[in-house]
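Build the 3D complex.
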Amino acid sequence: MSIKLPIYLDHAATTPCDPRVVESMLPYFTDMFGNPGSRNHSYGWDSEEAVSKAREQVASLIGADPKEIIFTSGSTESNNLAIKGAANMYAKNPAGTEHRGHIISVIHEHKAVLDPCKRLEKEGFDVTLLEPGQDGLVTRKMIEDAIRDDTILVTVMWANNEIGTINEIPQIGELCHDKGIIFHTDATQWVGKMPTNVKKDNVDLLSLSAHKMYGPKGVGALYVRRRRPRVRLIALQEGGGQERGYRSGTLNVTGIVGLGKACELCAQDMDSERERLLKLRNKLETSLESKLDVVQVNGHREKRLAHATNISFGFVEGESLMMALKEIAMSSGSACTSASLEPSYVLKALGVGDDLAHSSLRITMGRWTTEEEVDYAIEKIFEAVSKLRELSPLFDMHNEGIDISKIEWAAH
Amino acid sequence: MGSALTRTLKHNNNRRDRRKKADMAYSEKVIEHYEKPRNVGTFGTQKEIKERQDIGVGLVGAPECGDVMQLQIKVGDDGQIEDAKFKCFGCGSAIASSSLATEWLKGKSLDEGLEIKNTEIVEELSLPPVKIHCSVLAEDAIKSAIADYKEKNSK
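Done.
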């Protein structure tokens, strides 16, 4: 059987839309195009019904009540609404003053969490960014040690987008509830792949995105807890008062229908799909580790998403590695700077870059990834790394027992 | 209608230009050298090389900058560069620049070797502006290898 090239192994960036999702959306572009806000005719009612169904599908995937789902344009918007909305609602002092409340987050969060936190810092809030250890895990203990009397919000991602590590979300949620602190989690990489129950897991606010789970781009949701505690937010976008006033703007009906369908499909085969991808991931990692030396899997070895891996290869430069692997679509990251590759602040935070001469690949598999494709990727990566090491003076030095960090390099 | 059409055409041209630019990041010659690099290797281990009078080594760049080039020249009794070998940790353009440098050095005298300019490498490989530092590094490697040989043979 022939493989379609380039092979797509970048599902943490985005996923293809499932044809069943596309199918479910189509009627809402043409026949049932009504505005769900139109209360006076069947066009509006049909759309309203479709949105309600999608709300139930999303709620059911994460163990929420449909009333607790706010549709947004995606995780970036959900994160902004959750973080800025909660901070401003629960602020201890009015705008324009100092010490308005303490917010805890983590240094290797997505920019869509870090940047809203930085904005709030400029607006008088205190922000603590925790630095996890080398395994990248965020534990309950870390949060507990950082909590102050004036802490109003904790925001920690459920699973990391670069290394796939899974943080102690239920435990952190429990802690926050004990202390009366609002708890938000960016679950973009988690929802749809792992069983989620916001009630049991003590989550107050949760961001999710359709295009990471075989739905369309440009649509997502924010879960906002309504009971014990009832969480309130200050809206960012004002207007027609849609989504209980939290997110004004005519609803993206087609996108929302697609998100709902995507959630339903993820729930159907979640466990078997996870098992399948875990087998492929293990094969990929063990094959590369047995064929090559100076290879390191980044992040916690067990506590991470089944479909994702982040692997570093010593003595190989990132840009030339990507050049050799143009038949595989994936992400490269490096903790060190190269002329054209942006260094990864996540890997840097884990101390991966301390030996300087390495490059990393983030490989994330998905619903249509086959074993044949994984075998192909293993072979290609092995060939590319071997070839570049053949060329690498640093690999020679390593083999001759010379410590390259002890050499005085003339930086240019 | 006429202006809308012009606009569309202009738009298409822009898109084509952009695609051209993306391709130019690696010229055909760079890809060719990257895929079949010439004269890869060393004349021995670091320790062995240090003791050999007929070999000059240039090791330039730094791992934290993403480029390290190692260039070795073997000089004959007649003062001509008999052979050259390289190893490179770096991007495709750095690999191509050092590969090209070894080709050019072979058969040249030391003085002729010193005349190789980075601009010639840029021209030969059609390096884009962001990759000019690779050619500079290759020129540095040549100078440094020749200087090493001269230093070894000055006593």
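The first helix of chain B runs from residue 2 to 24.
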